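Researcher: I've got a protein sequence and the SMILES for pyridoxal-5'-phosphate. Could you write out the 3D structure of the bound complex as C-alpha cells? I'd like something to compare against our soaking experiments later this week.
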Amino acid sequence: MVGQNPVFIPGPTNIPDRLRQAMSLQTADHRAPDFVDLLGPLLEDLKGIFKTGTGRVITFPASGTGGWEAAITNTLSPGDTVLVARYGMFSHRWIDMCRRHGLDVEVLDRPWGSGAPADLFAERLAADRARTIKAVLVTHNETATGVRSDVAAVRRAIDGADHPALLLVDCVSSLASMDFQMDAWGVDIAVTGSQKGFMLPTGMAIVGVSDKAMAAIPSARCPRCFFDFRDMVAANDEGGYPYTPPLPLLHGLRASVAMLGEEGLEAVFARHFRIAEGIRRAIAAWGMTLVAHSPDLYSDTVSAIHVPPGFDSNTLTDHAYHTYGVSYGIGLGPLDGKVFRIGHLGSMTDVMALSGVATLEMAMADLGYPITLGAGVAAAQDYYRATVTIPKQKAA
Ligand SMILES: *Cc1c(COP(=O)(O)O)cnc(C)c1O
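Model: Sure. Here is the predicted complex with pyridoxal-5'-phosphate in place.
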C-alpha cells in the first residue's frame, strides 16, 4: 500500500490519474496523420506555458539535463565565454557541463541560499567592453536550496550594459508551477523537463527558444546532432519528428497542458504559493530554518530545511522512507546530511501537503527532534483554513 503515498521529492513529481490514463496507449504510427494533429497544436499551446508569443517550443526525448546541452550546443562555440553564478547543485552541474563542452566559464561563486546576483552580472557585463561574454546562464529555481532568482533583474542587468549576450535559463523546477515569463524577461532559451511542473514521468526535455537564439545557431560550433534545433524544427514544421517520438509522453503532455489550462496558469501559481506557504509555517513552528536567505527568494516548489545541530538529515529521510513509506529530498553536495527538502510542486493539494508535514513530524519525533507532534500540522492547517477558497478542482 505504500505505493499509494505521494512523494515529496522535488521531481519526479506525483502523476495525476488523468495523465497516467492519457499515457496508456497502444503503439501508434508516428508517421500517420493523427500525429500531425497531436504535435502541432501541442507545440503551439506550450508557448502559452512559457509565456512566449514570438519564440518557439522544441521537445526532445531526454531529461532536463539534455535540455541544458541543447541550449548551449545550439548557440555557442568552444572557447566562448559564458557568465554564470553558482549557488547550488544545479547551477554547479550546468557549469560543469559547459566546461566539458569547451566553453570558458566565468563563475561567480555565491553562498548557497542566495540567488542570481543581478548587480554583479551588471558590473561584469559593463566591464566587458570587448563583448567576449556570449551568454549569461541562470538557474531560475535552484532546487538544491529552494531559491527562486529574479530573472527579470538579470535581463535588466544585460540591457543596462547594452550587452548582446544571450540569456539562457534553467526553469526545470519552476515552469508550470511558478510564474515564468519568457518574452517579458527576454529569455533566449528556457529549459525544462517533463517530470516536474508538468506532472509526467521523466523523459522529455521541453525548451523555449527565442528568435535571437535561433539566429545564433549557424555560427555556433559546439558539436551537436541529436539535439540540433534545426533538425527538430524542420521536422516539426512538417508535423513530424526527426526520430521516433516518445508518443506516450507527448500524449501525456497534451493532457497536462489541458489540465494546467483548465485550472488556469495564474491559479496554478497561486495554489503553489499557498501550499508552499503552509509548509513554511509548519517549518517555522518546528523552530527550523530554510536554506533560502530571505523571503523574496523563497521557492514555491521546494523548501530546503536545515536540521538542528547534532542531527543527520539523511537519517531523517531514510527513516521516513523505511518506516512510513514516504520520500523527501535529501541535501545535495555540501548540504548532504545537513539539509532535507520537501518537494511541493506539480500535482499537490492541501491534503497531500498536510500528510507530508504530518509524516515528517512522526519521523522527527521518532528520532528525538525537539518538536511537538502536531505543531507544524496545526500551523499549516491554520493557514490553509484561512486561505482556502471553495475548490472548483474536479477529481483529476
Ligand atoms: C531536476 C532539475 C534539472 C534536471 O534534471 P534531470 O534529472 O536531467 O531532468 C535541472 N535543473 C534543475 C533546477 C532541476 O530541478
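Model: Residues 11, 63-65, 90, 139, 141, 143, 170, 172-173, 193, 202 surround pyridoxal-5'-phosphate (CB under 6 Å). The chain has two domains: 17-261, 265-387.
Researcher: Great, I'll pass this along to the crystallography team.
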